[in-house]
Design goal:
Strand content: under 5%
Number of helices: 33
Radius of gyration: 50 Å
Helix content: over 70%
Shape: rod-shaped
Structural class: mainly alpha
Largest sheet: 2 strands, antiparallel
Amino acid sequence: MATDTRVQRLETEVEVLARRVDRLEGRTATSSVAAPPPVPAQTPAPSPERLAPTPVPVGPPAPTWSAPAGAEPVSPAGSAGERGRARPTRQPARRRFAGFADGAGGRSLEDLLGGRVLAWVGGLAVLIGVAFLFAVAVSRGWIDEAARTLVAGAGSAALLALGVFLFEKRGRSDAALAAVATGVSALFVTITVAAQVYELLPAVLALAMAVGVASLATALAVRWESTGIAALGIVGGLMSPVLAGAPADLGTMAILLVAAASAVSVLLHQRWEWLAFAVLVVTVPQWVAYVFGDASPFGTLAVLTGFGAVGAAAAAGYEVRFPAERLRRSSAFLLGLNAVVLAAVGWLALEVQGAQTLGQAWLAGLAAVHIAIGLASRRSDRAAHDFGVLALVIGVVVADVAFALAVEGPARAIGFAGASVLFAALVRRRGLPAEDGDLSTAGLGVHVTLGLMQVLMSDAPPELLEGGGLPAAGAAASLLAVTSGCFVSARLAEAGHGALRNALDALGLALLAYFTALLLDDVTLVLAWSVQAVALARLGRIGSDPVAAWGGRAHVVLALFVTVAHVVTPTDILLGHGGQLLQGTLALGAVALAALACARLADRRERETRAVLEGLALLSTVGLLALVFDGALLVVALAALVVALAEAARLTQDRACVVAALASLGMALAHALKVEAPPSALVQGLADPAAAAVALLAVALGAAVLARSGRWERWWREGVGGLAAFVALYLASVLVVTPFGSGEATALGLRQEGQVLLSALWSVAGVAALVVGLRRDLKVLRLGALALLLGTVGKVFLYDLATLTSIYRVVSFVALGLLLLLAGFVWERMRPDPVPDMREVPEGVR
């Protein structure tokens, strides 16, 4: 028996030395360095006092240091499952009884139930029994408080000592681990009840005893690497105030904090990530109940600080002690959840207690701590880079919340704008990792958004646009701060961040337009936006800045919208200015000039954009003319605009001027045919011959000038010239019919003479145009003449034959027939012979 004991002690010492060497050299259980093959364990001589241990079979040498095949590695802390990882050293063999091993040499179900489950269930039952002991003793009055506390404490200490003795001296069994864990938990329960329920121990002594038990449990858990000690010992100690029904006061929180710190120390030493979550789940409800109970503000701060430090140490310490390339999800979740709970509970609890200032200070301190953790982690080579980034993000978020709660009104918007500038400076820094740059960009966007929300939802909401008058100083300060923040941030972050700069500039321009709308109304607002549009277009042209260019165009659209919605409506333009002549003239003129300037300053490659802007300028100009003039004067004004655009087209050779002139000419002709000389005048005559003559002559003159301007395609110049001739013929036609279409002429039966003269006019004009077209070889003029003659034939056969009396029919048909004969003769005499097809000419004649 003595030999067996010495062998086991030697094996234990060798194992401890191997572990220490591993820690010094940084080796892990999965090291790929080959190690010497394990030395087979010698079977000791049988001893009459006890059964001999089962020999451990030894496998062939392997490239990595591992346990022999068929043997279960056992550490001083228990089984391999309890240790959580394998060791590269040979473990002492555990003695087994026959029938406990399965066919492969591993543990059977019988071995698992009998050796481990029974032991741990027994320990849990003892712990519950201790709790019931206090309940029964109190209810039946068996023993007084001091006696029952001494009995419980002595029994718990004895159980703990027995477990330590069995584990160290008698084979490291699961039953010994269960006894130790149960003893530790029972001691925590006893100390809590004695100090908080029975008040037998002063708070200082109870705290010292709790520290001692926690330290002992921590030392044993680390020495034996036992998850059981941590589960039933440390976590059980965390549950002791709940199990004992201790009051939620500061003394209980101090004991709970010591137990939590012990759990975290075990976590950091043994890599038991689950223990951190157990600490959080078990302790948070207890200290939350305390701070929302009868706690004072300073007691609340003390509890928040203590448990917050434990939670942060659990997350940060694990990352520093066991560094990795990437941030572990468990650490990230733990740090984030700890910060959220501390911020929310701390602020709400102090708010309920009437200590708003302390609540704000608590949030500020919490933010500062996380920012400090982030900066320290970034400078350390041990912690993952992502961990420092996460801590900084949490610190900034909490700082934003603290700032928003501490200040109100414009100061809040100014603060967020300043923070956006700081983040823009970080974005500007060169050499930052891609993740940091993206994070800084996100921070910039978030703070700009926060400032914008403060402005639009609190300081300067859109409802101010309806009230009129100047905005308050606070609203102006908020808007100017956020607007300036956008522009400054855009300038700082422009290098390599074109999209970000464009977005910030666009937002700044939108806020500038909004601020202008709050300051000014109606005409003054239109004038201001028009000036801003030209300035932005100029900046866009000089600096090749698309945001400035498009900002100017957006200002033009806004100015036009305000003009037609608030200054002078389309109804006022069409039916009369309604007393808004001066304001409408100024607004429409400003919009027209701004749109034209933006079109001229736009890039020549932006043809569609230029066309749209020129169309807006033309539309505004036409609206201005319609507002100022009426009747024939409006047609004259439009014709003058056609002449001006035609001259501009001749000088600049710009097709856009030609298109604008054609559009203006079309509007002038439409107005003349609708108001001054409608088609019904061909039968009834003109109501106002002078106005019609002025309008139609202006249209014909404008068309003639336009036809002669520029070196454009021949077909459209001929078409515009034909339009001028058509308008002149139409004027002559209505003037011929007018004397015979009045009421007196109708009463005298003279209307038929007018229709005969109209047919004769069309016939003569057709023949004359045909002669000119033949003499000058103008195909368009010849076709127009033929069309006019055919139209005259149609009128005579369809209208004159149906409406005229017999004598007038004779005159109409005879006159038309003679003129058509003359036209046919002229055509035959003056039409040049067609060019012969040379393919039909003989070879010798060609």
